[in-house]
């Protein structure tokens, strides 16, 4: 009996010691876990700030995303079937990533000096850029300015050494993250604008044309690009507080006109004759036709904070444009102008294409239009010399044989000249006279 009691006491003591030891171990584990969470959180925070503070790391990431943003692709999200990536963008980005990563000297060349780029190398680079789930559609890419010829038998691309230069280079402005998803705020720096001059004559960092958001997923040894999304509006970025506005010089010897005098006042002793007065008043009364409403058959989706609505052709800004929204070249798409009352129309002035130094040749230019009036009559016109007009900063002008009275004008796209990068047909401005 005594032995059993002693055994019971021993077991009870051992049990209490186990519980005490387990409690101590649990406390240690809890503390270690808490320290781990704090450490991981601090490490992630430090990693994010490290990307911004470390110039080499920023440059590494900018070089990594360069082949994707260099040609200004449309937005995409690889995790969302409703926002697929353009297959051409995936292929073109992977080709350039392969070339930029390895250098042209690594690859063989044909008799004409074109680089022979194995498609297997491009597949490997695509997996590094976008992840192994992305499968490229190997095909020839060719338009007016670029040509990547795919040879199916050799499973290789022939890349000319005089390939197109990039449209943009990236500048990482901000990095945020949630878990293993990193969001880069990327400024798009146009080529030829790497440095700007301030009013004081000093070099300043370039102002981005726009800002986009690029999402990267952290993986072992690097990142995968998973999405490109619209960023904040960059309109404010394009205003330079140091820009010098030229002022009209004032001659201090000139007297200021009294408030009740005007510059076109007649000289003393001179009076306008009745006929001269009638001619002046009649010329002042003549006003251009007014069309208060403009709509379009289709419109391209907004991108990078920019809208491509039909109303852009009436905003007196050459660097905005209407862009049709069809997947093809936009043949048959149109702008429709409507008036509240019949207007007498002698002709039309328009700026053809997207009249921006960056996008003019990249997009389609229109070479022929059909103009339809409210009574159903139509006029077909060739648009000649539009490249020269853009260089001179002038409107192209279409003058009708006889004035037309109409309540609407429909400008229909008949023929185009293909852009170097996009199949979008554009018109920047329209005026009536």
UniProtKB/TrEMBL annotation:
Residues 235-250 have a biased composition (Polar residues). PROSITE patterns: FA58C_3. The chain crosses the membrane at residues 21-41. InterPro entries: FA58C (IPR000421), Galactose-bd-like_sf (IPR008979), NADase_transloc (IPR057561). GO terms for molecular function: hydrolase activity, acting on glycosyl bonds. Residues 231-310 are annotated as: Disordered. Keywords: Glycosidase, Hydrolase, Membrane, Transmembrane, Transmembrane helix. Residues 273-433 form the F5/8 type C domain. It comes from the Bacteria. SUPFAM superfamilies: Galactose-binding domain-like. It holds the Pfam family NADase_transloc. This is Discoidin domain-containing protein.
